[in-house]
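We both want to read discrete structure tokens more fluently, so let's practise on a single case. Once you have written the record down, we can walk along the chain together.
***
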Amino acid sequence: MARIDSKRRQLSVTSMPTILVIDDNPTVATALEVLFSLHELRTLSAQSPQAGLALLERERIDLVVQDMNFRADTTSGEEGEALFRAIRERHPDLPVILLTAWTHLASAVDLVKAGAADYLAKPWDDDKLIATIENLLELGQANRELARRLGRDRRLRRDLEQHYDLRGLVFADPATERVVSLACQVARANVPVLISGANGTGKECIAEIVQANSSVKDGPFVTLNCGALPSELIEAELFGAEAGAYTGASKARDGKFEAADGGTLFLDEIGNLPPAGQMKLLRVLETGKFSRLGSNRERQVSVRVISATNADLPAMIRDGRFREDLYYRLNVIQIHLPPLAERPADIVPLAEHFLAMGRSPSGAEAMDGQERPPSKQLSAQAHAALRAHAWPGNVRELKNSLQRAALLATGNRIEASDLGLPAASNANAASGDNEPDRAAIEAALARAGGVIAQAAAELGFSRQALYRRMERLGIVRT
């Protein structure tokens, strides 16, 4: 029983954050150990740089507090600087707090620039030291969790790319990855798929991924935008028409269903389909049979139907503008593609992709061996402006902005002003003052699971700066 209690105590101690104190004065190590124990922090100590480095190789250390001078006759800080640089070289992500009785401002600035977490003078302020350590430990935990999440996302993406045809889709955001994963998962099932999302989000790209990984991937992929044609012509486009079936129909014509036989038909803006077309589409989905306009002869086809909409179909059903039975036929599997503003990690990769597309050589250039124009790069301010913009036009707006910027930029670097985004966003981006609103902060907190340090890092703030904004906006961490 005693052995079990001892083991439990040992597990409890080793699960606590561990601070390594490197100081040649045993009194300092003892004082810090007492202080840290009051805050459930485990302490290990070493009295020389060599002993400290050896402990770092043997133990799991979360943070180092190190002295700057290890000989009684020196105050230069050279030994401490050498120790810090050795730690930084071997453990680049390990936070280090520098502690010394001899404060040299120039040395402090240099080492903080080199990555030191803080520089405190002896005698230290207990409250300030503990607050600094707790902030650094929380940030370290958030960074480790973020690294694990990013590693998992990279593995999932590699698996998708290895096992499925993603049609060259460019994405980096976990929200987009979930959509792509679902599209690949349902592709083999020969059932209708409804893709919902705002205009310009990339619904047709998702439809292409479904088709490319389906059992009819070698068949035709036919598209029809139901919102691009007059309502009286949509039926003829879908089902074909005999000569004379309507004004201007001088000869018989095939419809999209016949063209897509043995493959996939993508119906964009399905909410614009008129009532007569809805009834006929429902019958095709149920039986695979239809008749051309002006004909009584039934035709049989085998077509996978993928539809897309930016409309609120349930609201249209309540208003009597869309058939409920057709909605449930189309909506066997629904894939919702969020707006670009809710996929922030996609913005910069897509922008760089559109820039690269803009400099691809034409066929004539490729044949004549002409050189491509030099690649244009996005400046840091342009990156900030892209991330700050709300993108109401989604991916389509982003593509147009990059095409315009590539034409207007006078040099090889695209600045925020070249993007043609609203002046307020550009001004904020250029000044580095991208002030997020309440919704942006709450969204960042939600993505970070309430971890302040992680949300602050995503928003580009310090932890304290985020706390100040939360207090000003009345945001309470749950």
